[in-house]
Amino acid sequence: MERAGSFLSWLAAVVVGLAGCSPGAGPPPAPVRPAAPAPVAPPWEGPASGQVREFQLTVGRVPWEIAPGTGVEAYAYNGRVPGPELRVTEGDIVRVTVTNALDEPTTVHWHGVEVPVAIDGVPQLSQEPIPPGGVFTYEFVAVPAGTRWYHAHFNERVQQGGGLVGALIIEPRQAPAPPPDREYVLVTGEWGAVGAGHSATASAEPRGMGGRMRQRASRASVERFTINGVAYPHTPPLIVREGERVRLRLINAGATETQAFALAGHRLTLTHSDGNPLAQPVEAEAVFLGVGERADVEFVANRPGRWQLRGLQPGHAERGLAVDVVYEGHEADPVQLPPPGVRPVRYRDLVGPPGDGGPTRTYALTLSGGMMHPDVWTINGRSYPDTVPLTVRAGERVRLRLFNMSMEDHPMHLHGHTFRVVAIGGRPVQGPLKDTLTVRHMEEYEVEFVANNPGVWLFHCHNLLHLHGGLATEVRYQ
Ligand code: C2O
Ligand code: CU
After folding, report:
1. What is the pLDDT of residue 359?
2. Nearest partner of 84 among 53, 114, 112, judged by Cα
3. Ligand 2 centre from 151 Cα, in Å?
């Protein structure tokens, strides 16, 4: 986001918001306002273990081969796409020193982590961008446990879309079940025009010229998909041994497209959605992930051979979105594909932990756009930064009713909080805890979150074209 705004004004808003809900402070609330909710502790208070984990990330450009002879001029953390996996334990103090070796500013956003707002990585809204040559140290308590990720949040379509993404795995301090025998983390990527050698690419262009025209041109131009930076069939296979229980952490770190995956020859068990445990794991022929979403799945390696984990959306696997699961000793077996017609599990099949209580405040948000003006996307008829901010007070339980009137998927992501899916199509559900929810054409969902992390936060579509087209708003604490 490149919106002009003032660091001081949000800071003032936070301070006022905090003062307003401290016990005994200020005048009694006016009758039209809801009663002052009980103060709640911010998410990072309590779980800190005192253990400090330090990491260094250098942000730069690198020629990157997504397949032999096929290169892109990528943006990269520590010279790799995706960036290094950061793996910590819940409650650790994570200290990440970021050095900006680009010739433009950058920031890092910790997607799915409940961080203090000052390091949330949204330029002008939560932090000042790190200038070229600058160094900034992010420090936060690793909470909540689960499959999280990190990515650039400046000039997103170019930087995040150009490779500034990585996995952040927060292991639970006390694992509820024995860990699987083997685990793979799979970070997907999407690339625009790719070429022989290392020519410039659509997803890694300099910013600031003819933005809208180019966005339109790039709309349907995903040329290649990658898993951990490599396009199939060059993706290194996932080696397993017969009898093992294997976990895959799937992260859709692409720019625009909803993905779906099935593993030939095996049923998947979906255990976590966006890194948050389901109340009951769900058997799945396939799972789907909008941009920004994560799915943790497990399978038992009980059918020796070579089996493809395949992107099911039309054209995805053909453009590189696949990887083979290969049993030791079966490297030379022919690869088997999932049968046609496998169906991903739906949100309505997922059960989360029990909820508690109803909303103190509800906002109805209609998501639209992409019709009259293909690059303009709206919430209740307005594009960011002209969308109406969602005002909340600390301690409230806030419900958002999301309805998608447009033709495209909107993976809606809330910064700094975890929400619960509480209704689908108007019917109450005990849905999963998530931070990104993909609302498809004519679907309606209600989600609820506890306002426990004061600040000004972005709530936006994670399709980077839609984000740049204005499908965003702010959650502002009073
Ligand atoms: Cu994953 Cu606003 O971001
Ligand atoms: Cu969208």
Report:
1. 87
2. 53
3. 18
